[in-house]
């Protein structure tokens, strides 16, 4: 990385003033818009990352229980080079329906991959399992995906209990009774030369959220009395993990850059961004998590990106977004958030 100062959102590692552009989160990347729909009656929801002008895309899927749509299309050997949107949703496999609504909205705008007949919108999607929160019959629908696309803006991205992260929880290593609320988070890094790398994530992990800057748990598995944090890393080291249920978790996210990348390079960036998951979530990529990261390159910077640099920054900013997802969340009945436990903590001597 250059010696020039890096301006970041939410990073204790930087002593610089916060960049107004970085403060927007994922929409700091020119050409990207974000829209949320939140079904507060459960809660659950979906988040649409709109790249209406098209963005080169890659994906990396890890964990044992993924739920995805059109990820095979993003393989670098396959023909389609650009997508018009990415949809992240709650509702498990039912939530994949949200992407259909986004496709409809894009078709109405005549946006998509040119074919000999019509333009076909390319909208890969990933879901997380949040059906254990509230009424499992309330799920994101195609209407939600349509509305989220219609609501997408390039303004600052809302965080916390919104969109795909509305029903997200963490710290389920020993079952749901000691877990906590998480949500949606976003962050961006802006370099002085104009390169932007940003992330958005819905955190619904089996494990804990750990702040890489301090090594401390932010949210996750609580102590038996529910008042403190047990630290899943300690539980795992003592062999207490057991066999967590499959299909109750999954963290899904998007990293984006304004640099020019090929499809192969975008795929490598998605792979490297998973290091951000590993730094800020513990444990991660388990059989009970279906973790997915999409990578988008809008090319609006009009310069080829250094893949090593973009990928390294993607991991950094994804870790920041995960921590923000925990800190910006609001507690629900039986699922306190980080801010709730911090409020109860005794003052530091």
In short, what is this structure?
With 349 residues, this protein is an alpha+beta fold.
Describe this structure in words.
The protein starts with 6 loop residues before the first strand and ends in a 5-residue tail after the last helix. It is α+β, with helices and mostly antiparallel strands. 59% of the residues are buried. The model is unreliable at 1-17 (pLDDT under 50). It is built from six helices and 17 strands. The strands form four sheets. Strands 1, 2, 3, 4, 5, 8, 11, 12, 15 and 17 form a ten-stranded mixed beta sheet that branches. Strand 2 (33-39) and strand 3 form a beta hairpin. The chain has a single domain (7-343), classed as L-amino peptidase D-ALA esterase/amidase, CATH 3.60.70. The longest helix is centred in the last third of the chain and has 21 residues, at 307-327. Helices cover 21% and strands 24% of the residues.
Structure classification: alpha+beta
Would you identify the regions where 5 or more consecutive residues have pLDDT less than 50? 1-17
What CATH architecture do you see? 4-Layer Sandwich
| Proportion of strand residues | 15-25%
Overall 3D shape: globular
What top-tier CATH class fits best?
Alpha Beta
Number of domains: 1
């Amino acid at each position: 990385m250059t010696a020039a100062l890096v301006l970041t959102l939410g990073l204790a590692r930087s002593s610089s003033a916060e960049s107004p552009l970085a403060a927007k989160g994922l929409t700091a990347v020119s050409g990207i818009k974000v829209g949320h729909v939140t079904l507060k009656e459960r809660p659950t929801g979906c988040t649409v990352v709109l790249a209406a002008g098209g963005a080169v895309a890659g994906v990396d899927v890890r964990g044992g229980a993924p739920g995805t749509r059109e990820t095979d299309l993003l393989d670098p050997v396959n023909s389609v080079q650009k997508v018009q949107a990415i949809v992240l949703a709650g509702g498990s496999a039912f939530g994949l329906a949200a992407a259909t609504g986004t496709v409809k909205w894009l078709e109405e705008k005549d946006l998509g991959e040119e074919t000999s007949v019509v333009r076909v919108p390319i909208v890969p999607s990933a879901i997380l399992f949040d059906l254990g929160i509230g009424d499992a019959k309330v799920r994101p629908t195609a209407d939600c995906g349509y509305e989220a696309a219609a609501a997408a803006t390039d303004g600052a991205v809302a965080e916390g209990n919104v969109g795909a992260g509305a029903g997200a929880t963490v710290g389920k290593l020993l079952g749901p009774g000691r877990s906590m609320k998480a949500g949606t988070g976003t962050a961006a890094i802006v370099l002085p030369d104009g390169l932007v790398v940003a992330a958005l994530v819905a955190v619904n992990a089996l494990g804990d959220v750990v702040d890489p800057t301090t090594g401390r748990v932010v949210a996750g598995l609580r102590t038996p009395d529910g008042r403190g944090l047990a630290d899943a890393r300690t539980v795992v080291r003592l062999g207490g993990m057991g066999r967590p249920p499959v299909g109750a978790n999954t963290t899904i996210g998007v990293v984006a850059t304004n640099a020019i990348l090929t499809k192969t390079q975008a795929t490598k960036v998605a792979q490297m961004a998973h290091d951000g998951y590993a730094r800020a979530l513990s444990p991660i990529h388990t059989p009970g998590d279906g973790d997915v990261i999409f990578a988008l390159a809008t090319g609006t910077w009009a310069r080829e990106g250094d893949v090593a640099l973009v990928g390294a920054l993607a991991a950094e900013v994804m870790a920041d977004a995960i921590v923000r997802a925990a800190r910006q969340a609001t507690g629900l009945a039986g699922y306190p958030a980080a801010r709730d436990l911090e409020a109860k903590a005794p003052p530091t001597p």
